[in-house]
Predict the 3D structure of the following.
Amino acid sequence: MSAERPEPVAQPPSAGDCLAKPGKAEYRRNLPHLQVEGKTIFLTFCTRDRWVLPDSVRTQVLHHCLHDHGNKIRVHGVVVMPDHVHMVLTALWDAKGRPYTLAEITSGIKGASAHSINRMLGRKGPVWQDESFDRVLRCNEAVRAKVDYICANPIRKGLCRNIDEYPWLWREWIEGVAQPPPAG
């Protein structure tokens, strides 16, 4: 006899919890995904089977991550690693005043970039894992500090000595208003 594991029970927010505000939206896949209106999100998605993206397509992935900057999302920072992507972003609002959903944002980036990658490499099939990891930044977490942390990832992995050497990252206060790199 196998017992089914119960769904995790959400703990009630504490009185001082900054996430305890109206406007939460949650969707479920294998991992829970929580989006809080107006809050910044740390997002990570990985390639299928941790496939290493060739250098020739990483610029295209960066381009897709920045494509909706200023329209659907405000991108604070992004780094495209060999087999995964980190983004720090805030969802913006549509014409009806509703925030774009994390599912819509993520599927747009992953879908468009997968199509481009497959076309560029003359291949077919999935590029990204179905699931992604995301987390709403806590009230006391600074956006810039989180972006600095993700942009140091190439240094920690030995891909470069300083972040200015790594071509597949973007920070809003350095690179300025998103002018995505030319599509490859």
Summary: The chain has one domain: 27-174.
